[in-house]
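Dear colleagues,

As part of the handover before I leave the project, I'm documenting each prediction I ran so the next person doesn't have to rerun anything. This entry is a single chain, and its sequence is reproduced below.
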Amino acid sequence: MSTAPASAHAKEHALTDATASEATLRRFLHGLPGVDAVGLEARAAALGTRSIKTTAKAYAIDLAISMIDLTTLEGADTPGKVRALGAKAVNPDPTDRTTPRTAAVCVYPDMVATAKAAVAGTDVKVASVATAFPAGRAALGVKLADVRDAVEAGADEIDMVIDRGAFLAGHYMKVYEEIRAVKEASGSARLKVIFETGELSTYDNIRRASWIGMLAGADFIKTSTGKVGVNATPANTLLMLEAVRDFRAATGVQIGVKPAGGIRTSKDAVKFLVLVNETAGEDWLDNHWFRFGASSLLNDLLMQRQKLATGRYSGPDYVTVD
């Protein structure tokens, strides 16, 4: 029997077969290796203790700033607040023009046009949550209309939520087909698929959701909405980084990762960058493939950046209040 590696085409075909029916998809997902929770958490904790020296820290802070999806997703959002957010994304530190821009601003669909105007002429993207964010409890037609509204308003990226109820009930094909439909409705906009990992209960479920998202055509897989008690953690992000690494090994297709919610300090951000480097590799250390969903994180990164540059800690009055 030949031991030669399968061709890329054969590998892609094998994964395509996995989504042929509810039964084949279930068999594929439940055939994935079980997650060793203790081992996963221990590895995430160990990587989080890595010491980062001054030069590397300065690089990591700038990289983290460039990876932020600067986010406002509140019922009280106003056009003025969104314009201010866009201005901050384009010019995070008005006293230092060498500060990188953030990757994107992330808003509700009705604020996309305002955000688009605020970042016009720059490389800052406009991301929009959609599909009845954050609960996802709406008919598919409503969700797709939500997506189309955002895209027509100029969204460069769509952040959708999966139907957690369907997933937890074992209706994997429904989740898969909904992601496929949203991907089609998104057109040229990149699609980030949010699992709401805090509601999936187990690491095995997070791994399965990651593979459903990737098989369905996600450009990014994302931990959370930031609207529940448990959001991004080093362990669940590590698990998703392993999934994108393994998916690329199997298909040649690279998928991005976005932890969101609860990442507030520079120290936290650097820990996540170490996870990326040590798990998926350097190819993911770029804002095309890794993002932070955050609002308060940018302020701490700016304060730490100022401290490295001047030796003085400026304090929270140095940055704008979001």
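The two ends are 63 Å apart (CA to CA). The chain has a mean pLDDT of 92.

All the best with the project,
I.
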